[in-house]
């Protein structure tokens, strides 16, 4: 191995990590720039002017269904096929709901119990749950205040809190 | 795009011929202030660069806010994505069924495209069955594909139907008249007797009523509705209703 002064190391070797630990910041920057130049020279690109994708304002629609708002194709009349009649209601109201999304039309569902019964049931339910989890001391106060519509606490005794001795 | 709408508005309700062009100039892209709306060209209209060309002869129709299409008559069906059609199964090959939908090509229907179908649990479809399905792929470059489920995996009435009943072909214009919401023909037909009807956008209609005679009556009525004015139709229906009952 003939030594010509400083050993001639190839560029690739110099680019390896273990050779760059000894370098200072400037040398590193120069090496980086050289690399970038090489890469950008080799990088292939199309030599065309920049074409902006034109935003299409015209949309093509091939089907008649959205144009004329056609309904669902299966139909049954006068109860001939109850399943199809149910389907008709389902699919056509589904379509109407999409149209009326902007209006707040809440379709009323058929109920077995009236709203008032539901409210009453909930009232008593809330009452019983409260009693269940209330502390023993408070349980008697809950049952007392039923008759009063406004649930005023004026007649009830004030809650017993711990009184600190004043000594 | 007031310019487009202005061009179109003049012609709404008029008869247009193929080759008529609506052209307009797009505003300069530098003007950010002008808000451009989208125009939807329905069937019969085609976009050609920045112009809109008419490719079918008929009457120009408009729907708010920005939909335009040509209302024309034809009997030959061209598959379009999203339309529900009645098909006849013609062949079973491997994993797909070949279905005749009345177009230039037969559509393919995968056996997995039915509700509750798995590789082990194949649907019970035989050659010659009627299926009601929707197109997922339908363009001029590829073979059309049908499915019998919707995007959530539910059947929604699609699939094999109809043990009895009668299948016949009508023009596409009549099909659209039947499927319009609040269709008069349907309202008049309802009054006569109970029956079941499946209408496919490919011009095929399947009817089933209690007796063979009633089925044939409904079929004949639908076929004659094609060329009648609403007055004539109503008198005819009344006569049939009186005659039946």
Oligomer: heterodimer
The share of residues in helices of chain B is 10-25%
Largest sheet of chain A: none
Poorly predicted ranges of chain A: 102-107
Unreliable segments of 5+ consecutive residues of chain B:
28-34
Distance from N terminus to C terminus of chain A (CA atoms, Å) equals 101 Å
Tell me, rounded to a whole number, the average pLDDT of chain A: 76
Organism (chain A): Onychostoma macrolepis
Pfam family, one (chain A): MPP6
GO biological process, one term (chain A): maturation of 5.8S rRNA
Protein name (chain A): M-phase phosphoprotein 6
What would you note in describing this structure?
The complex is a heterodimer of chains A (167) and B (245). Chain A is mainly alpha-helical. Chain A has helices spanning 11-15, 17-20, 25-42, 65-68, 82-99, 115-133, 136-144; strands at residues 58-60, 74-77. In chain B, a hairpin with a 2-residue loop joins strand 8 (84-93) and strand 9 (96-100). In chain B, helix 3 (184-190) runs parallel beside helix 5 (230-244). The N and C termini of chain B lie far apart (57 Å). Chain A binds chain B through residues 52, 55-81, 84, 87, 90-92, and chain B through 1, 4, 26, 29, 36-43, 45-47, 52, 61, 63, 67, 69, 80-84, 132, 138, 156-157, 161, 176, 179-181, 186, 189-190, 193-201, 208-210.
Summed up, what is this model?
The complex is a heterodimer of chains A (167) and B (245). Chain A has 167 residues and is mainly α. Chain A contains 7 helices and 2 strands.
